[in-house]
Amino acid sequence: MEFDINSNISFIQERINDLEKITEKENPYTRLVFSKEFYDGRSWLRDQYTSLDLSISTDEVGNLIGLLKTNKKNKQLVIIGSHIDTVPSGGRYDGIAGVVSALCVINHIKKNDIDLPFNLAVYDYLGEELNDWGTSCIGSRGLAGVLNKEILSRKNTAGLVLKEEIDKIGGNSKLLNKPLPVIENILACLELHIEQGKVLEDRKIEIGVVRSIPSISRFSVTVKGQAGHSGTILMNQRSDALVTASEIISFVNKSALKLSQKSNQHFVATIGKINVHPNSAAIIPGFVEMTIDLRTSSQNSKDEFLNILNEKISLLNDTSSCNVKIKDLAFAPYIEMDKDLIHLLKKSANSLGLSNIIMDSGAGHDTAQLSRVVPAGMIFIPCKDGLSHCPEEYAKVSDISKGTAVLWEMVQNLARKKIEVDI
Ligand code: GLV
Ligand code: MN
Ligand code: MN
């Protein structure tokens, strides 16, 4: 049954509007995983699932699932969805566009009374964004069986233990030591997402079919100096942790710039989070902790970067009177998406007459974790000025609707393929 791009715009718009209201009021748009706003967002999503007559469940890792069961005797499953959590002061579309488009596909199926040859589930993957426990993609990592004990036992700054939060939201963290059993039944995971970059917008292309997602490595760097009176300790007597930290910040930036120019591969590194203790104007900073976020498609460049960073840290330890330590926080591998799904996504966009390209993602996604264990594919749609992870993030609802048309076409293509195999 044909999906009409224009007539689905209001369905999508209303839901984007609903979710944008569920935010920390003084800090739009903020719906951090496990926060009150996140629980409110989930309760909104449960209502959506209920009104679409889906069976609702929460899996072992806390993904919220709305399941549309096939009438056929078949346990196979196609997953569509994304995430409703946000970064602090984030946007209204990152993740949300994918969840709303999945709801829109289900609505279309229900309205037209379509029976698919497999189960179709909407997933809100738990906590895709980087959180206070130093990890991201909680739900998809849990599905893939790569949430290890160390990560699950971490405490955040408020002293909350990650696995206890997973259990509170309806998961069962004891069962997270291997891939979840459901993956045996998964035919494909599909995610629509805003591009979060400018490629589609600049080239005026409607659909991006994602080929690869860069690896993401995060490191915690701590610098221990000595706090003291800012008026009495003379300049040559200080162990100022922030001054040493600032050397690391510029070193990371400059080295990443050089490596990105040298390797001609995607290579970016950011220090976007820094805590200074005790953070007071009249006290020399005694301790700094910060996070390096490193993304690349090239293992060689990453190795080279870590070598020179470690040399720099040794040098600072020898010369600065501060003590610098670096520690791994999280890792997601570079992945290439399933080739058959890339082909089928392109075919789906072509058959709808939508301009499309195959492209690489700059951002990380749940799909990267899922690709470790099941076939996974992604659809990108343009977003304004490439802005994301900020309140200015914006995507046209008509573009989301076009992406949704591709998502639905893709589900149908998978259904046709499945029927061919079964005959
Ligand atoms: C996910 O939003 C990321 O940080 O790439
Ligand atoms: Mn996202
Ligand atoms: Mn994001």
Quick summary of this structure?
The protein is of the alpha/beta class. It is built from twelve helices and 15 strands.
Number of strands: 15
Average pLDDT over all residues: 97
Total of helices: 12
Biggest pleated-sheet summary: 9 strands, mixed
Q: Mind telling me the C-alpha Rg? A: 23 Å
- The level of helicity is 25-40%
**Secondary-structure content class:** alpha/beta
Order of helices and strands: HHEEEHEHHHEHEEEHEEEHEEHEHEH
Which consecutive residue ranges, at least 5 long each, have pLDDT under 50?
none
Distance between the termini: 22 Å
Descriptive notes:
This protein has 423 residues and is α/β, with parallel strands linked by helices. It has 12 helices and 15 strands. Strands 1, 2, 3, 4, 5, 6, 13, 14 and 15 form a 9-stranded mixed β-sheet that branches. The chain has a 4-stranded antiparallel β-sheet with strand order 9-11-7-12, covered by helices on one side. A hairpin with a 5-residue loop joins strand 1 and strand 2. Helix 3 (96-111) packs across helix 12 (397-422). The chain binds glyoxylic acid and manganese (II) ion (2 copies).
Keywords:
423 residues, alpha/beta, nine-stranded mixed sheet, four-stranded antiparallel sheet, 15 strands, 22% strand, binds glyoxylic acid, binds manganese (II) ion
